[in-house]
Automatic annotation (TrEMBL):
One GO cellular component term noted in the UniProt record for this chain: plasma membrane
Intracellular or extracellular location(s): Membrane
Name listed for the protein in its UniProt record: Putative sodium/solute symporter
Gene3D superfamilies: Sodium/glucose cotransporter (1.20.1730.10)
Main location: membrane
Organism (species): Gemmatimonas aurantiaca (strain DSM 14586 / JCM 11422 / NBRC 100505 / T-27)
Length: 477
């Protein structure tokens, strides 16, 4: 086990060194926020996929596969489907708007389109929600350290928070894009090597296929709490995620978005079964784990040869770090751009903005550690973020991009209705579905209905069709 820990420490130091070296190229806030709008297809693909294969799609999805079986495939598959929509529909359109108006955050877009009230409301909601997804990454790292060296969850979360904050604060998107290439290679190689060894240790494919601890364990649509229901929670979130949209802002042209994000979507779809099968293999070998999210680190430490396990753990560790820096990207740019520059110091220089951004990275990292210490697990923390993001952002962003007739009041109605329904659902029903309708589904439906009702009422009264914002610009370059 100490061998695994030494490998992870060495790997972490190497990533910090690489980040520090690349950060020397970060000269302006544009470099930090949108990588100078110069990312090509390869870098966009690697930074998108590295961010998307994080704690949820490794430790979390493996835990779901361990607990519920093959239906857990929808956790990552839903992200792939959402990414397809981003690649060929939303991404190119919003990139053009961002480039035309020098937008750096999703908050910038929302103010351009709807006004400052919508920007402020969404920025606040997403800051709270993003802390939960950061906490999910930290919890995943703590599970790894716990299995390897018996490190308590509290200490593991603190160590992970320090590492991730230092690594990200050095250079923002530009640094992340290059470091993500290395992380992605480690992930792909690590999982590719670990799978056949884990399958062999589980008795081979025939033994795994015959393993049926529950009647629905091999049902691809529904099993336990997993299944197609994830599509409503995760699909919209991966279309409008602020962290992913800001990476799209960094693309040099529309072709880059279609290729980079499109191949990211394809890779997610192909990868979707990997963590689920690993979780099922872990259950064959270790059927009595006290926490299902320990399945992946336990399998890699105890269920495969040491060298293979070390490479696999490096892959998982890469996944958590790359996803965490994507979340810190959301949190820091939101605080520095959407609040500090917008309200506190509109005339802030590049140097001031970079200082504030790096300082807020420390604040965000500390907040993530605090949530991680009290959250139940990776999936529970991530579910809060994805739900908030989907029900609050999906309708306003789509409507604002493709209609000049939407108003600030329409967007506010959608945001408030979606959040209110989800909050009430969780408070009164403990988040349990009603006749197959889940809280994210209900919130998304409420947001659409509220948007349409307020929009139609406003048009009937002859209100200003674009009060509080400016019309979208989606013409092609």
């Amino acid at each position: 086990m100490h061998t695994h820990l030494i490998w992870l420490i060495g790997y972490s130091i190497a990533q910090l060194a690489l980040g520090a070296w690349i950060s020397r190229r970060v000269k302006t806030s544009s470099d930090f926020f949108v990588a100078g709008r110069a990312l090509g297809p390869g870098l966009l693909f690697s930074t998108m996929l590295a961010a998307n294969i994080g704690a949820g799609s490794t430790v979390g999805a493996t835990g779901l596969g361990y607990r519920d079986g093959f239906s857990a495939i929808w956790w990552v598959l839903s992200a792939g489907i959402g990414s397809l929509l981003l690649a060929f529909w939303i991404g190119p359109a919003i990139r053009r708007v961002a480039a035309e108006h020098d937008l750096r955050t999703v908050g910038d877009y929302l103010e351009l389109r709807y006004g400052v009230t919508v920007r402020t409301l969404i920025s606040g909601l997403l800051w709270v929600g993003s802390v939960f997804i950061l906490a999910g990454q930290l919890i995943a790292v703590s599970w790894i350290l716990n299995v390897i060296a018996g490190v308590p969850k509290t200490l593991g979360c603190i160590l992970a928070g320090v590492l991730i904050t230092v690594y990200f604060a050095s250079g923002g998107l530009l640094t992340s894009a290059y470091v993500n290439v290395v992380q992605l290679i480690v992930k792909l190689v690590g999982f590719a090597i670990a799978i056949p060894f884990a399958l062999s240790a589980s008795g081979g494919w025939d033994a795994l296929r015959a393993f049926t601890p529950t009647e629905t364990y091999w049902n691809p649509w529904q099993g336990g709490e997993s299944g197609l229901v994830y599509l409503a929670m995760l699909g919209p979130a991966f279309v409008v995620s602020p962290g992913l949209l800001q990476k799209v802002y960094g693309a040099r042209d529309d072709r880059t978005v279609r290729i980079g994000v499109g191949f990211n979507a394809l890779a997610l779809i192909l990868y979707a079964a990997v963590p689920v099968l690993l979780g099922m293999m872990a259950r064959v070998q270790f059927p009595d784990l006290p926490q299902s999210e320990l399945a992946l680190p336990t399998l890699l430490v105890q269920g495969v040869p040491a060298a293979v396990g070390a490479l696999g753990l490096a892959a998982v560790f890469s996944a958590e770090l790359s996803a965490a820096d994507a979340v810190l990207f959301i949190l820091t740019t939101s605080l520095s751009q959407d609040f500090y520059k917008r309200f506190r110091n509109p005339g802030a220089s590049d140097a001031q903005l970079l200082r504030v951004t790096r300082f807020t990275a420390v604040i965000a990292g500390a907040a993530g550690v605090g949530i991680a210490l009290v959250a139940a697990g990776v999936v529970s923390a991530l579910s809060i973020f994805y739900t908030i993001m989907g029900v609050s952002l999906f309708v306003p962003i789509l409507a604002g991009l493709y209609s000049t007739r939407t108003r600030s009041a329409d967007a506010l109605a959608a945001i408030i209705a979606g959040i209110a329904v989800v909050g009430g659902w969780r408070l009164l029903l403990d988040g349990k579905p009603i006749n197959g309708i889940t809280a994210p589904m209900g919130g998304l439906i409420a947001a659409i209905v509220a948007f349409l009702v307020v929009h139609l009422v406003g048009r009937a009264r002859g209100g200003d069709i674009n009060s509080g914002g400016r019309p979208p610009h989606t013409e092609r370059n």
